[in-house]
From TrEMBL:
Transmembrane segments: none annotated. Residues 197-206 have a biased composition (Gly residues). It comes from Nocardiopsis endophytica. This is Alkaline phosphatase D family protein. Gene3D superfamilies: PhoD-like phosphatase. Residues 191-217 are annotated as: Disordered. Residues 5-90 form the DUF7800 domain. Residues 160-499 form the PhoD-like phosphatase metallophosphatase domain. It comes from the Bacteria.
Amino acid sequence: MDVGADLRLGPVLRKTTPTTATVWVETGAPAEVAVTAGGVRARSRTFTVHGHHYALCELQGLAPGSSTPYTVEVDGAQVWPDPASEHPPSLVRTPPEGREAPVRLAFGSCRTPIDHSPGAVRRYGSDMLRAYGRRLARLRRDAGAGDGADGRGPDGDGAAAAEEPAVLLLIGDQVYADELQPGMKEFLARRRSQAAGDGGGSGTGAGPDARARAEARPPADEVVFFDEYAELYRRSWSDPDVRWLLSTVPTLMLFDDHDVRDDWNTSGAWRAEMDASPWWRHRIVSGLGSYWVYQHLGNLSAEERAEDPLYGEVLKASSGEGAAAGNDAAEALDAAALGWHEEPQSRVWSHEHRLGPARLLMVDTRAGRDVADERRRDILGAPGAAWLDERVTGDADHLLIASTLPFLLPKAVHRLEAWDEALASGAWGERLRGPAEKLRRALDLEHWSAFGRSFGSVSRALVELASGTRGNPPATALFLSGDVHFSYLARARPSRRAAREGAPGGGTRIAQLVSSPLCNRLPTKFRWAARLSAAAPTAWAGWIMARTAGVRPPLLEWGLDEGPWFDNAIAELALDGRRAEVVWLRGRDGASGDLQIDEEGPHEV
């Protein structure tokens, strides 16, 4: 069977609940897609955007805590699974109902898809998403998964289930739109040359015509248009091991800067400079629009998608109905994406999920930023900040906050970013604001600590949570993050300032878990800086700088208890009652071929 003939990309198993599951696909042409899992079947017509065709099928009425093989049909022909594949059957695994059952989740960020050649592995390291897929496939084969009627194994006891993640969190930089591999650069050159030669036809779909593309003067080594993003996602998710993994583990996603562009929304000055570029409008519209299609829609339940007016408009346009009809919803999506860029606080991209004993908050720290006023910066924007504050409550055994950017950085970096923000807002006079902005961009000083008001507000909410003023305190409040291209565990507690202000904290364990990168290893020459940032003398120097700029001491005190580690990695967090343990699965440095995995941990949080 030639799976690629009808199924361009996917299936990707997205949000699941005890009784429902969402399956996302991209097809090669408009079609009806059907997904069947046991006795449950879901159908959906594709919608079309810029000549590409997508469907989300919502399986309903599944049994809680079940594991069921599923198939995908396009216009009545089965296209998944591929009978020639060596992978075990793709399963829909639903979580059990209630808060008592243990849960395991995996998370990571920052993945450059490579061709696995020796040169690519030397530069980027082993692809840990691919390695994780191979590991899970071996686990299922060893347990006999898929041999029983329910997909659990020959004896139906679900032997592999206890060691499998209930969900995979991809928290930032799923694609690198501004750092392309050679094959993608060649694709851009061919695509743009073809578009210029045929006047915008031959596969450019409903996107900008050839004249608009030429006038945009797009950079040769960055994606700009929607069809280019579509190819970038295809290359990232079509590796056989990665494709199978995404088909069988429920996956939730958040974007970070490289999904759009490095330093995206780092400051008001950055936004103004990018808006003046002739190609940036095409890029931001394509980046936000493709994120909505490829990543965000699958984070939502069927009810949440139905409440999104844009989703309804896109479906109507693709079916030839409504004001924007024409069987391609590009115009509706592009208009919405431009609005999201021009009014960053007009949409809250964060989303919430329940995972057994835990409540998971997936928090956007990029698109909703408010950076218009250097003196009143907010990493979440007012609507996003309100969304998060309302949910930092104690109604679960564990509160998980997935933030692409680490909330707790090594102390020296935290203080450097706070100092730089103070200078950029005029703490040492107007003449130093420009140099501080240049330093911010040169060193990527744009994490939570570079947004002092936001960091302070969330820190206070955590201290209140631990003190019991926001409900029954959870056992843990854990930040799950990536971005920095090294991994570590940092445990935190309320600081002396918090105690002086009447919020001493309580039994809640607060920690930062960072797992990064999946495949984009930090070059050796930069690792010394990361190690230095965790050293005590550097932290003290940062303290002096921050204090002289008027930065107040934080409400939390923390340090790096484990790490930093610089190998490509993916982390697993296991929650059982009020216990929490984390282990990092790290690719052996320079490994290739069988992609050996070394375990760091488990570490009790």
